[in-house]
């Protein structure tokens, strides 16, 4: 279980009880400048700055007691935004047919960065069409994936 998984299991119940959706989290280690970023969402109405503040106070209290991260870090609570990161298969499924940007930990067919239409989502992977070529990318290799906003 990754640190992010542990943090999600720890925080999801509280965040959902507050009326928000736990969208995901990421821990960015950088010594004393490390960051724990928690993404929350709210159906249809979106997330306000006040919402982020309320959740931040609750999350901070839980993290202080449970202490899953031993070193110093900055806590950020944010909405996923228009270029929302994708963390879970059901999130990928919700954005099937849209343009995404994906970075993998290992090369897939010779590349690690992809920007194209996510044409298919299965239980184990996604298919992204880049310049007319289809790449099947296993979830296990995805380091980061974001929806590309359309204006």
Q: Can you give me a brief rundown of this structure?
A:
The chain is of the alpha+beta class and 151 residues long. The chain is 26% helix and 40% strand.
Explain this structure to me?
This protein has helices spanning 3-17, 49-66, 89-94; strands at residues 21-28, 34-41, 73-78, 99-108, 111-121, 125-130, 133-138, 142-147. It is built from three helices and eight strands. It is an alpha+beta fold. Helix 1 (3-17) packs across helix 2 (49-66). The model has no long low-confidence stretch (mean pLDDT 96). The longest helix has 18 residues, at 49-66. Strand 6 (125-130) and strand 7 (133-138) form a beta hairpin. The chain has two domains: 3-78, RimP-like superfamily, N-terminal (GMP Synthetase, Chain A, domain 3, 2-Layer Sandwich); 89-147, SH3 type barrels (Roll). One of its GO terms (cellular component) is cytosol. This is Ribosome maturation factor RimP. InterPro entries: Ribosome_maturation_RimP (IPR003728), RimP_C (IPR028998), RimP_C_sf (IPR036847), RimP_N (IPR028989), RimP_N_sf (IPR035956).
Labels describing this entry:
151 residues, single chain, alpha+beta, three-stranded mixed beta sheet, SH3 type barrels, five-stranded antiparallel beta sheet
CATH architecture assignment of the largest domain: 2-Layer Sandwich
- The geometry reads as globular
Q: Which regions have little confidence, pLDDT < 50, spanning 5+ residues?
A: none
User: Between the first and last Cα atoms, what is the distance in angstroms?
Assistant: 37 Å
Order of helices and strands: HEEHEHEEEEE
CA-atom Rg in angstroms: 16 Å
Q: What is CATH's topology name of the largest domain?
A: GMP Synthetase, Chain A, domain 3
Q: How many separate domains?
A: 2
CATH superfamily grouping of the largest domain: RimP-like superfamily, N-terminal
What's the tally of helices?
3
Biggest sheet overview: 5 strands, antiparallel
Strand order of the largest sheet: 7-6-5-4-8
Assign the CATH class of the largest domain: Alpha Beta
């Amino acid at each position: 279980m990754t640190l992010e998984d542990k943090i999600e299991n720890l925080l999801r119940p509280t965040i959902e009880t507050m009326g928000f959706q736990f969208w995901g989290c990421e821990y960015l280690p950088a010594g004393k400048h490390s960051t724990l970023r928690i993404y929350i969402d709210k159906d249809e109405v979106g997330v306000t700055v006040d919402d982020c503040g309320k959740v931040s106070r609750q999350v901070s209290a839980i993290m202080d007691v449970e202490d899953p991260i031993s070193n110093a870090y900055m806590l950020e609570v944010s909405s996923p935004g228009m270029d929302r990161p994708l963390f879970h298969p059901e999130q990928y499924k919700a954005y099937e047919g849209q343009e995404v940007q994906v970075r993998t930990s290992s090369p897939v067919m010779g590349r690690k960065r992809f920007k194209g239409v996510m044409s298919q989502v299965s239980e184990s992977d996604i298919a992204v069409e880049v310049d007319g070529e289809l790449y099947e990318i296993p979830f296990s290799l995805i380091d980061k994936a974001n929806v590309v906003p359309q204006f």
